[in-house]
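Study the following:
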Amino acid sequence: MSAFRELIETLENMLQLYKALYGVALKKKDQIIHNKIDELNVSQSQESKLLKQLAEFEPIARVAMVKLQREQGVRPKLKITLTEIGKMTYNPADRKELSGLREAMGSVLNDLRTSNELNQQLLQQAMEYNSFSLDVLFGAPDEEVVYKKPTMQPQGLKRPGMFDVRR
C-alpha cells in the first residue's frame, strides 16, 4: 500500500472518531441540561475510549506523512500540515481527496470545539447554581480572617441559613 493510501485511510478513521466524539458531545449537552448524571458518566467513559483510539491513530498518520514525503523526494519534516502535504501531491484526484478530508476534519473539529465550550459553560453554570442553592439553604460559609488553632475552632456545621427551622 502506498504511503498516500495509508495516510488517507488513517485520516478517514480519525474523521470517524472525531464525528463520534462530536455525537457524544451533543449527548452530553442534553445530559447536562437535564441533570442525567449517570448517563453523563457513561458518555464520559465513551469519550475517553474514543480519545484513546485517536491517540493510537496519530502516530500512524505521522509515520505515513514521513513516508509520503520520502516517496516525493522531500526531506521529511515531523511537523507538517495536511495543506503542505497536499501541495506536494502531484495527482489532482489525490490532492482533491486530501483537501476534502482536511476540510471535513476541520469542520468537525470546529463543531466539536464549540460544543465542548458550551458544555463547559453549562457545567460551570450548574456548579454556580448548586453553590447558590446551598448558600440560600444553609447560608454562606463563615470564613475567619484570623488563623485559629484547629482545636480552638468550633466543631460541626456553622452555616446559619435563611431558612432556619428553629424560628
